[in-house]
Amino acid sequence: MATDARGTSGESLDEPIYIDGRRHLEDVTTAHDVVLVDFYADWCGPCQMLNPVLEGLADTTEAVIAKVDVDEHQQLAGSFGVRGVPTLVLFADGEQVEQQSGALPEDRLRTLIERHTE
C-alpha cells in the first residue's frame, strides 16, 4: 500500500513530512500512532545537525517524523510554545506526550519514540 505525499495513510514513512499548516499537522498526528514533530528554521545550525538524525529515525523507527518551519508557520509554532529551535514535540495516538527543546542525541530521541511505540 503506497503512502501519499501528505503522509496520511496510516503507514510508517521512511522520510520526514514537511507540514504546510495546522490542519496538515492535525491530519498527520491523528493518522499515525507516533509522530515526532521538529519545529526548525533553515538558518539554525543545531537544526541542520539534527536533520540526518531525524532522517535516520524516520527510516528505522515506527514513528513518523514531521517538520514545521517556524519562519513559515509562526502562529503554529507559537501555539506549541516554541521559543527556540529546534523544539521537538512527540505525539502518541493523536495526543501530545513530550516536548523537548534543543538538538537531542539520536539515542535519547529513539528512547522517547520507543517508549510510545511498544
Observed structural traits:
single chain, 118 residues, five-stranded mixed beta sheet, 4 helices, globular
Describe the structure.
The chain has one domain (17-115): Glutaredoxin, CATH 3.40.30. The protein has a five-stranded mixed sheet, with helices on both faces. It is of the alpha/beta class and 118 residues long. The model is unreliable at 1-12 (pLDDT under 50). Helix content is 36%, strand content 24%. A hairpin with a 2-residue loop joins strand 4 (87-92) and strand 5.
Low-pLDDT runs: 1-12
Number of helices: 4
* Number of domain modules: 1
Radius of gyration from CA coordinates: 13 Å
Look at the structure and name the CATH superfamily. Answer: Glutaredoxin
Which strand order spans the largest sheet, edge to edge or round the barrel? 1-3-2-4-5
Binned, the helix content reads 25-40%
How much strand? 15-25%
Q: Pairing-aware structural class of the strands and helices?
A: alpha/beta
Order of helices and strands: EHEHEHEEH
Number of strands: 5
Look at the structure and give the CATH class: Alpha Beta
- CATH architecture classification name: 3-Layer(aba) Sandwich
Query: What does the average pLDDT come to?
Result: 89
Major sheet attributes: 5 strands, mixed
Please tell me what the overall shape is: globular
What is the CATH topology assignment?
Glutaredoxin
Straight-line N-to-C gap: 23 Å
